[in-house]
């Protein structure tokens, strides 16, 4: 029996400015993921997750990336519909001039410690940060029109 699901594949990258504790942050004003977030986007047909992460982050920041490293996946599954959303998370170092703004929103450098305490982060960014900061693995939650469960680390 063939089971088809709608699957949305995305990537997100925490880019550290080479040799500093600064990270590239977007202040996004576009859709349901408004707020402070890291660069990222959709994986294109025929593209690896790593290649998508590099492409998306370089397009949105203008930086040249190096040392990309996979650090986790966030997996959202609809309770009743055959829909899934996966975000593959990466860290990287960036060099160059950070674009001040793109169609996604305003870009700026922020100390990592300040970002951790910041108000106005996009939904679930605190949970995503656990992967970006070294606790590799999968975060999972179910959702429907009534709301979203908390993300739980899968062990």
Task: Outline the structure in words.
By secondary structure, the chain is an alpha+beta fold. It has a single domain (6-154), classed as Alpha-Beta Complex (Nucleoside Triphosphate Pyrophosphohydrolase), CATH 3.90.79.10. It has three helices and eleven strands. Strands 1, 4, 5, 6, 9, 10 and 11 form a seven-stranded mixed β-sheet that branches. The chain has a four-stranded antiparallel β-sheet with strand order 3-2-8-7. A hairpin with a 6-residue loop joins strand 2 and strand 3 (35-37). The radius of gyration is 15 Å and the shape is globular. The relative contact order is 0.25.
Q: Layout of SSEs?
A:
Blueprint: E1 6-17, E2 22-28, E3 35-37, E4 40-42, H1 49-61, E5 64-78, E6 83-95, E7 101-102, E8 105-111, H2 112-117, H3 125-132, E9 138-144, E10 147-148, E11 152-154
Parallel strand pairs: 1-6, 5-9
Antiparallel strand pairs: 1-4, 2-3, 2-8, 5-6, 7-8, 9-10, 9-11
Q: Short description, anyone?
A:
This protein has 155 residues and is of the alpha+beta class. 17% of the residues lie in helices and 48% in strands.
């Amino acid at each position: 029996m063939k089971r088809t699901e709608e699957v949305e594949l995305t990537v997100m990258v925490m880019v550290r400015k080479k040799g500093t504790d600064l990270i590239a942050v977007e202040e996004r004003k576009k859709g349901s993921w408004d707020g402070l977030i890291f660069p990222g986007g959709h994986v294109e047909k025929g593209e690896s997750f790593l290649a998508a992460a590099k492409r998306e982050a370089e397009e949105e920041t203008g930086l040249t990336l190096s040392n990309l490293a996979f650090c986790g996946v966030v997996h959202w599954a609809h309770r009743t519909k055959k829909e899934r959303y996966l975000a593959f998370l990466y860290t990287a170092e960036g060099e160059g001039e950070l674009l001040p703004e793109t169609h996604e929103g305003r870009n700026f450098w922020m100390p990592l410690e300040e970002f951790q305490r910041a108000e106005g982060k996009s939904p679930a960014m605190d949970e995503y940060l656990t992967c970006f900061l070294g606790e590799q693995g999968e975060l999972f939650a179910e959702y429907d029109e009534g709301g979203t469960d908390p993300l739980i680390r899968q062990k």
